[in-house]
Amino acid sequence: MSFRALFYPRAVAVYGSVSPGKLGNILINHLVQWGFPKVFAVNPKGLGLNHVPGYAKINQISEDIDLAVIASPAATVKEIMTDCGEKGVQAAVIISSGFSEAGNAKGEAEVKEVASRYGIRFIGPNCAGMINTYSNLAPTLQAYPPQGHTAVISQSGAVGGAVMEWAQSHGLGISKFVSYGNGADLNQIEFLRYLKDDEETKVIALYIENIEDGREFMAALKEVTAVKPVVVIKSGRTSTGQRAALSHTGSMAGADAVYDAALKTCGAIRVESLDDLIDLCKGFSYLPRVLGRKVAIVTNSGGPGVMTADKAEELKLNVSESSAELVAELRDFLPAHAGFKNPIDMTVEGTGDNYRRVIEACLKEFDAVLPIFFGPPYLPTMPIAEGILAAFKGNNKPVFSAMETGLHAAESIKYLRDHHLPNFPSCERAIRTMARMAEYEEYKSKVPNKKSVMPEKSKGLLFERGPLLEPDAMKVLEENNIKVPEYRFVTDKSEVAAAALELGYPIVMKVVSPQILHKSDFGGVELNIKNGEEVLAAFDRIARNSEGYDFRGVVLYPMLRGGREVILGLTRDAQFGPVVAFGLGGIYTEVLRDIVLRVAPVDRPGAEEMIRSIRTYPILKGIRGEKPADLEALAETIVNFSRLPFLYPDLAEADLNPVFAFPTGVIVGDVRMVRGNKE
């Protein structure tokens, strides 16, 4: 289907009652009020509304109808879609509820089958409609926003409606709005791909509650973010009902963390509130790109300037001191008692012309400027607004206005908005928007890794012959270029002393049993065994502790010393498939809960970014004279580990804990692999 029938239809038919207060009445009035030229009402009585003609059946309309808007009872929708198909309608917006969201999955499937038969693509059911401000099309229950360059895709009609309501008061222009409801046909994936090439859209705002096909969603998102920014609100951040079961690390990583990882991987910007979403959409819609992190703060009051500088540093923006050349330029027109270093404090004496000249001077050496104005009630704000706007219009770098108080502040803020310079309600929101915009440009500037880390084909099933014992799991790691220590698997006490001598003391001994997963809890691990007498006694203790279980023997390793302990985990997420976790191991795993997730497979730059992302990264880099861990070998281990679930379709979970990262090299200390269903 061409999306033109949906967003630029020649004519629209609205199904539903035209009686006052009914949805059909509201939808027709919206379409007419906002200027769509060809609207027809369709209802059993053939009633029209004002100048809109009414018909009992759509095939009675002589005009070609591209779009049907359906707001009739759920039981009638299947027949309506059949009539639309016979009429040649190409697209539909099904406002009607009472389908899968109400337990009527069968009715929804029947509507989808009819639509598929006739080639009709549809939004909904159970949705709040759509808007295209560039075709005066508004078959929606929501407010009509000003025209602009932000597209809004919302699974929730209420959330999308709130954005439409706020668009006017916040100065945010909208290009397209879609509330897709149950998403039985068209959903966020199709709309993302359409909006990627939509010339009327500069930024996409996305509200999601769940994703059916996580991998396809990620593919679409990556395609879009390579071209334009996507700002996402994902609800359910604190839900504990769903878990990403990363075995040992599962208690630290809920399903929401997987969404975080997926969105970050794809370059989308996740925000927590509608305020942040509106701010970012304003910034991306109206301001030039933020092509660096070097920022100047211009203020008429020291306190707000210092607070903003603190926040900027926290967000990893660079509030560097003004150059000698800039200071000299500023001294020509600012009073001697002004602050010149950055933040640049003009004091309460700062005029509109001062703001203009300071901003223009700062833009010569900074990537972006944040002018702040806190005025007392008697001080006019319009001259300040005019100065800020003049500086903005004369440059091609972003200016983040934060005008908060003063005489006639509301009128001055509206003046900026009317001239397409967004004003942010607070210094903190302005600087946060700037940092996120810089973050997106950094993502775009990265050269994509051309080498695919996805295996061409699987190696087969790991668990074809039953449970995977630790020695077998170690062999799997070794075969996939993940370094493991030398080891010996011993099934009989008579062989244990000779095996220990081959490895060299001191050694570690572990129980091998398909029934004992957490070995330490069963007394199944013996450390720092130093001689033959100790190794025999250790075997006896482990065998005794394993009575009543399927005891297969022990595995011996050299005792590893030094190095930083890290942990790696794998699981299969319901939406996104294989996911890899990384964090510092040992006591840090449980105490600090410092884990980072990424959707697998992970390429080399992604693995390096994972390592840098944990809070305890400085420990790996080396502190107080310690040698750094071998971060290159660690990144390569993450890459190879992340490939395992694609090589072995029946691998559901895996833990490497601990993994020892030495100054030279990385070695896995323990491994656990869990069987799952073959994909």
From TrEMBL:
<dbReference type="GO" id="GO:0046872">
    <property type="term" value="F:metal ion binding"/>
</dbReference>
<dbReference type="InterPro" id="IPR013815">
    <property type="entry name" value="ATP_grasp_subdomain_1"/>
</dbReference>
<dbReference type="Pfam" id="PF19045">
    <property type="entry name" value="Ligase_CoA_2"/>
</dbReference>
<dbReference type="InterPro" id="IPR051538">
    <property type="entry name" value="Acyl-CoA_Synth/Transferase"/>
</dbReference>
<dbReference type="InterPro" id="IPR036291">
    <property type="entry name" value="NAD(P)-bd_dom_sf"/>
</dbReference>
<dbReference type="InterPro" id="IPR043938">
    <property type="entry name" value="Ligase_CoA_dom"/>
</dbReference>
<dbReference type="InterPro" id="IPR003781">
    <property type="entry name" value="CoA-bd"/>
</dbReference>
<keyword id="KW-0547">Nucleotide-binding</keyword>
<dbReference type="InterPro" id="IPR011761">
    <property type="entry name" value="ATP-grasp"/>
</dbReference>
<dbReference type="Pfam" id="PF13607">
    <property type="entry name" value="Succ_CoA_lig"/>
</dbReference>
<keyword id="KW-0436">Ligase</keyword>
<dbReference type="Pfam" id="PF13380">
    <property type="entry name" value="CoA_binding_2"/>
</dbReference>
<dbReference type="GO" id="GO:0043758">
    <property type="term" value="F:acetate-CoA ligase (ADP-forming) activity"/>
</dbReference>
<dbReference type="InterPro" id="IPR032875">
    <property type="entry name" value="Succ_CoA_lig_flav_dom"/>
</dbReference>
<keyword id="KW-0067">ATP-binding</keyword>
<feature type="domain" description="ATP-grasp">
    <location>
        <begin position="474"/>
        <end position="510"/>
    </location>
</feature>
<dbReference type="Pfam" id="PF13549">
    <property type="entry name" value="ATP-grasp_5"/>
</dbReference>
<protein>
    <recommendedName>
        <fullName>ATP-grasp domain-containing protein</fullName>
    </recommendedName>
</protein>
<dbReference type="GO" id="GO:0005524">
    <property type="term" value="F:ATP binding"/>
</dbReference>
<dbReference type="InterPro" id="IPR016102">
    <property type="entry name" value="Succinyl-CoA_synth-like"/>
</dbReference>
